[in-house]
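Bench log, entry 3. Co-assembly request; chain sequences pasted below exactly as received.
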Amino acid sequence: MWKLLISFLYLAAFAAAQTSTKKPSPWQTLKGDAPLVIANGGFSGLFPHSSSIAYAFALQTGLPNTILWCDVQLTSDGYGVCLPDLLLNNGSDTGDQFPNKKKTYLINGNRTTGWFSVDFTLSELSKVSLIQGVYSRTFQFDQNLFPVMTIQEVVKQVKPPGLWLNIQHAAFFDQHKLNIRSFVLSTSRSSIVNYISSPEVNFLKSIVARLKATPTKLVFRFLGKKDIEPSTNQTYDSLLKNLTFIKTFASGILVPKTYIWPVDPKLNLQPSTSVVIDAHKEGLKIYASDFANDVPLAYDFSYDPVDEYLKFIDNDNFSVDGVLSDFPITPSAAIDCYSHMDKNDSSPAKPLIITHEGASGDYPGCTDLAYKKAITDGADILDCPVQMTKDGLPFCLGSINLIDRTNAVQAYSTLTMDIPELNGAGIFSFNLTWKEIQDLKPQIFNPYAEEKLYRNQNNKNKGNLMLLSDFLGLAYNATSISGVVISIEEASFLAKQGLSVTDAVLDALSTNDYDNQTIKRVMIQSTNSAVLTKIKEKKNFEFVYEVDEVIRDALNSTMLDIKKFADAVVIKKKSVFSRNNIGFLIGTTDVVPKLKAFKLPVYVKLFQNEFFPQAWDFFSDARVELNSFVVGADIDGVITEFPRTANNYRRNRCLGLGTNTPPYMTPVEPGSLLTVVLPQPPAQAPSPVLSDSNVLEPPLPSVAVAPTTANTTTPALPPTNPRNGQSKLVLSVLVANLPLLLAAILSL
Ligand SMILES: *[C@@H]1O[C@H](CO)[C@@H](O)[C@H](O)[C@H]1NC(C)=O
Ligand SMILES: *[C@@H]1O[C@H](CO)[C@@H](O)[C@H](O)[C@H]1NC(C)=O
Ligand SMILES: *[C@@H]1O[C@H](CO)[C@@H](O)[C@H](O)[C@H]1NC(C)=O
Ligand SMILES: *[C@@H]1O[C@H](CO)[C@@H](O)[C@H](O)[C@H]1NC(C)=O
Ligand SMILES: *[C@@H]1O[C@H](CO)[C@@H](O)[C@H](O)[C@H]1NC(C)=O
Ligand SMILES: *[C@@H]1O[C@H](CO)[C@@H](O)[C@H](O)[C@H]1NC(C)=O
Ligand SMILES: *[C@@H]1O[C@H](CO)[C@@H](O)[C@H](O)[C@H]1NC(C)=O
Ligand SMILES: *[C@@H]1O[C@H](CO)[C@@H](O)[C@H](O)[C@H]1NC(C)=O
Ligand SMILES: *[C@@H]1O[C@H](CO)[C@@H](O)[C@H](O)[C@H]1NC(C)=O
Ligand SMILES: *[C@@H]1O[C@H](CO)[C@@H](O)[C@H](O)[C@H]1NC(C)=O
Ligand SMILES: *[C@@H]1O[C@H](CO)[C@@H](O)[C@H](O)[C@H]1NC(C)=O
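Structure output for the full assembly:
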């Protein structure tokens, strides 16, 4: 049975974090207060909406004054319970428990079929359990049988600092002879109810006089602009033009976020409306709803939900007074850690931000635009995955297969070849001259296209590919860039085709004055130790060894081997935090401590903003994930396609606070969330330990004089991973590390 308490530890941390500055308010809210975080059914992005654990977890991970939102439904015997929807089958297993109690009712003129609270006594609802109502979220907590709670139970068990009751269908209860008005009035006498919202004018009008002298505030909720408000028969759109009227019975309004920042069907953010300023002029507070981290956001936010919140609370012109969110940790961090950041502040050195094909989350990878964006976004190191043209020129592209990153299929399909060593069929860069490649259209890479999560389609073919030497020139001129990383793969294969990629790289570095200077770092990266060894024989750059398998540890002898040819190591995220096949973190591996014991800096790939590949533990928030790796696992650098997010993360004001670190900036504790999953999934075979044979490679073959045919099967050469690293098949997720909380909840 779940009992809930708020950990005193975290309350203490909150209190400390709050005693910061006392300057004039930076907030353009109605009264200059910081915006409120309103947790929609608790932390409903993770746990079942309205469950005890969702409510407790919202308080444990959010701002100390986080408000808990309860959608009130009345039972036939007049109890008020928190359930997300008038239809009980959305978010609970009522349908399974009571198959015969399905009914059809007229709701605002619509015939609606399902299970309704008005047909159940409270005692009947005690047989019902809360489940995840949003299909894209994890259903692994459904077996916990979290009970439906009355409002009094929420207050007693969770002790919220603030409570918000939403009455979505007041008239419906009246039609069923249930007096929602007197229920709400008596509840606000017996418990502290801070806010009552409803989309029905008459309901709010009927209680406003009785609540005048109480702390309870009434909020009129706007639905879709074309929807009809049942008591006035006006559309919500027309009511929006009549805020003076709204002010007669409410002190605030709650609007869908698109009322404030509309988004067009192509996911482009439109200019803001004047609704926040209008509401404030009328003396109304304004709250925005529909915030969730796990939905496609406007492209302008690059899948970074913190940026979305900041647009509503920290723009030049206004701030909303609160946000209704399924993931309250994210607005908590946005408000306390990321708002009003001084744009002139310099970035801390850690973590080192290394790009992956430039800012390829926003532009086609390795184009001039992707690199320029990375520079303005605050990257430290620009990367060039080097490929060779038929005419022997090195250029930057994320794949040796042009199909992965350009429109080569359209013009050069006749050049398609099947080369097992290079992962099968493709149009390969070494079959086209630079002139031909330059004329191709680069294409933005959409690693999660199957999930319909596209990257900025306005930019999908923008920018130009660059020769390595142009890339080096660009990086040299960019004063904020501290160095470059040149990654070399398929060197053995190319040598057999008569192309020496290592010589081409050395030439380009030399021509561009990189080989005898101290201004820019030069890192050479490969998964093939022979490449590093070969270049090291000629020039002493920094050498970075990439471990392309997922490992849990490495032998000491292997560490010593690596130190012979590398100065730093790149590992995969799953080699830092192990993860099971249902998307939860299992624990922390020994890999980072081992590398550090051998004084090898650790860079981790691949950081992306999209929520889909993440571990559930990171709450679909790319910055929670970054924090868990950087602070929780103490890695030295991140390899990212979204350098802006990484840079804004490392500049936030909640880092380095020691024991005063607020919970929303505390790393996730791998494995803690998994303890809540019922039934516990079977243990998985652990990842292997990196050993000498994984690391040592035969020397590169000498460069063939004439290209051999693609047909001749060449032996040797271990298979290398496709450049796009992440497996699309694995649903799961990444990692984060809130030092949990869950343990505290569980132990009660
Ligand atoms: C179920 O409720 C959630 C909110 O908890 C809502 O987002 C979703 O649209 C609802 N689903 C249906 C089928 O009504
Ligand atoms: C009634 O149903 C229609 C069609 O499903 C929908 O568009 C409309 O918004 C519904 N009206 C209300 C008040 O729910
Ligand atoms: C709203 O419209 C309906 C049908 O059009 C009508 O029956 C009802 O009386 C109207 N209510 C008000 C308050 O005007
Ligand atoms: C505002 O709404 C009220 C109630 O529907 C109506 O009486 C009044 O005329 C409206 N005012 C304007 C300017 O539309
Ligand atoms: C602020 O308002 C000005 C003037 O209306 C407008 O030009 C500017 O784009 C607005 N800024 C934001 C962030 O909305
Ligand atoms: C930031 O830098 C710009 C240009 O260097 C300067 O004009 C501005 O005053 C600075 N802002 C702050 C807050 O220091
Ligand atoms: C770098 O700067 C120099 C001097 O300003 C300029 O001549 C050169 O074209 C620049 N190179 C690139 C790649 O921008
Ligand atoms: C490298 O630069 C140093 C100082 O500028 C110079 O003394 C040295 O000769 C240079 N070495 C080469 C190989 O160019
Ligand atoms: C491996 O190296 C670590 C760190 O240098 C050391 O503590 C440990 O004892 C070594 N293990 C073995 C088996 O040598
Ligand atoms: C493509 O490259 C392969 C391997 O180097 C070579 O055998 C083949 O002749 C090339 N084809 C063309 C059209 O360049
Ligand atoms: C591969 O070999 C087969 C048979 O030896 C030959 O017919 C074919 O043309 C070759 N393909 C290429 C791309 O060289």
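Residues 1-19, 707-741, 743-748 have pLDDT under 50 and may be disordered. The two ends are 9 Å apart (CA to CA).
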